[in-house]
Structure formats: structure tokens, C-alpha cells
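Our consortium's second objective concerns turning raw sequence data into structural hypotheses that experimental partners can test. To show how far this objective has progressed, the report includes one record in full. It was chosen at random from the queue rather than selected for favorable results. The single chain below, 146 residues long, was entered without modification.
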Amino acid sequence: MIVSERSRDVIDPLTGEVIREHYNEIIKNKSRVKGGWGMIYGSYDNVLMSMKSPKEIEVLIRIKTMFTRSKSEVSFTQSELADRFDISRMSVSKIIKRLVQSGFIYKVSTSSYIMNPYMVVPYQADGAELQEQWDCLTKGNENEKN
């Protein structure tokens, strides 16, 4: 919370004179992750190091760049990635499975994923909003497992 000292001219109701009134204004401080730069947290490095080949790193980077400030949920198929990187669908399936298990992405529905905003926040995205969405989705999934 930020308090700002302000002043304004008002008319005194008793005398009709213009007087200067001083007051404090409380300005709410938005606790959001600043935009302007994409943010990468240390846990992303662990995911990156778990990739076993340059092709796997290329797939990871491609998936990461699919997410933008306006696209927090993206769709892609194993076939699309396999064709793009000239690798087998089975290899892509293993990569996606590893990314889901590591918590880098979360499978929302068939071929639809969100990226973990505690690992990567896309350029100019609202990190707090993305983290809230992530928490709601993943918390619901934890309750289903119990």
C-alpha cells in the first residue's frame, strides 16, 4: 500500500472562501509480476537439463515459445511436433510425458496444455494471474487423486 500526500482547493461552507485542503490518498499497490521481460525461474533449468538430446531441447523451446501473454493455453499434437522436428511420435510422446511429470506443462485436455508460470512467465504476461490459474487447475487435479 502506498500513501500519497495530496491537496486540493475547496470552498469553505461557512465563509465561502477558497481554501487549500490537505489529505492523504491511499493507492493500492498491485502485487503483480512486472511485464516487459519474460521471466525464467531456476526450476526451468532443471527441466532443460533433463532433456537428453538437442532435438528434445528444440521441442522444449518450441513448446515454451508457443505460450504468449495472450495465449496461456495452447494446443499441439504429437504428430505436429514430430513432423516439425523430424522425430518419431513415440519420442515426442516421451518428451511431453517428461514435461508433464516435471511440472513444466499441465495437460488441460486432449492436446491442450498450460505452462507452469512458476517456471516461465511469457513476455508481458501477468504472472500473478497465470499463477492463480495454474493453482486452480493443479489443485483440483490433486484433489481428484486423493
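The partners drew two points from this record. The chain has five helices and seven strands. The helical segments are 42-50, 54-66, 78-85, 89-101, 127-145. Both points have been shared with the crystallography group to help prioritize constructs.
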